Amino acid sequence: MKVIIDTNALMVPVQFNVDIFSELQRLGFDHFIVPQAVSNELDRLIMHAKGQDRIAAKVGKSLAQRCELISLEGHADDIIVSLAQDTGAAVLTNDIGLKKRLFELGIRVISLRQKTRLEIL
After folding, report:
1. Which residues, other chains included, contact 8 with Cβ-Cβ below 8 Å and sequence gap of 6+?
2. pTM higher than 0.85
3. Which domains does the chain have, with CATH numbers?
4. Per-residue confidence at 72, pLDDT binned at 50, 70, 90?
């Protein structure tokens, strides 16, 4: 199954020591997608963030290389929603606003639970 990965989810391994790819595979996902807009957000964080956030963004950028990169430009959340609708993919995110939008559209959402594992909501 396909899953689109949001910027904040790519930073989870550093922030919470959770292997998102192992967790996604445990949940049955095997095709990982990262929109170009997410990669661009990580680039901005690498340039402007400080401390742990900057490290997490660098690791996230490296992890994104293990995913299919989709070259769609624009606001990351809008692209994620559109891509999920078009492909039927689930979305891995911890962004409350994005989760609400996805729920309203009936799109499957995966999120970090108890800072230890991923869960389909």
Report:
1. 93, 94, 95
2. yes
3. 2-120 (3.40.50.1010)
4. confident
